[in-house]
Amino acid sequence: xxxxxxxxxxxxxxxxxxxxEAVPFAALxxxxxDELRRRLALxxxxxxxxxxxxxxxxxALALVLGFEEMIAFSVGAGTxxxxxxxxxxxxxxxxxxxxxxxxxAELTWQSGPSVxxxxxxxxxxxxxxxxxxxxxxxxxxxxxxxxxxxxxxxxYVTVESLEGLxxxxxx
Length: 171
What we know:
5-stranded mixed β-sheet; 12 strands
């Protein structure tokens, strides 16, 4: 399982020059769910169906304006790898949101890593990059894109961008 890091933890790692050990290439940055949504997600035996697409604009704005409250998951570290994302505890990245399927999506990258890609695993509410639905074929992620799994949103950021956000927030 990929550990969640708070912005406070990321700042401490950056101050001690250990950020690149924790986040060697990129991260998925998320606004953590409120306690009610978290509890609902943990109690749900199946995915809660959404009536339409995720609220991308609202999420993107919250992710930018609320950086101090964000959490981050490191992606793209080390050798060639595939990591699963979903609500179920068996996933590498566990997303506590009832609109996220138990096994929702996969991330993959090649050693280096220079390319991180995402694909949907047949989820109920879909996987989106900047509002465009991702199918079962891998779609390449670029710095700053908004990734939505159901109604849970993330910003995909390279470690360079993450360092910039951390510097900007500490001035």
